[in-house]
Amino acid sequence: MNIIRFRFLLNLKKRVFFFCCLLMLLLSSGKSFTQNNPEQGLPFIANYTSKDFNALPQVWAAIEDNRNLMYFGLQGSIIEFDGVKWRKIVQSRGGPPFVVARSFAKDKKGKIYYGAD
User: Fold this and answer.
1) What's the structural domain count of the chain?
2) Residue 33: inside a domain
3) How many CB atoms sit inside 10 A of residue 74's CB?
4) pTM of the model
């Protein structure tokens, strides 16, 4: 009786080992379900040169407003980008002229302020 039980347990261990090996083989083989196109799923990134926005190349600050427009603080100007076109923002009269727009801040209502030299 003990010999039969021992053989049964031995066969059971072999079966479990065989099943685990077979399962690992099935899970690791075959075609994996990865993306065929390596660029698929990556975010679209566009690089712009200073010739694209017609200003000096060094950007000191950037901010997005509530309308999803981007503002960039450059040396001597602030520019706005809507995803297609660039627009230079003209400084209002009466204020001191700025050399470099170095920082932006946005209040709770969405109004954007800039800090400049």
Assistant:
1) 1
2) no
3) 19
4) 0.61
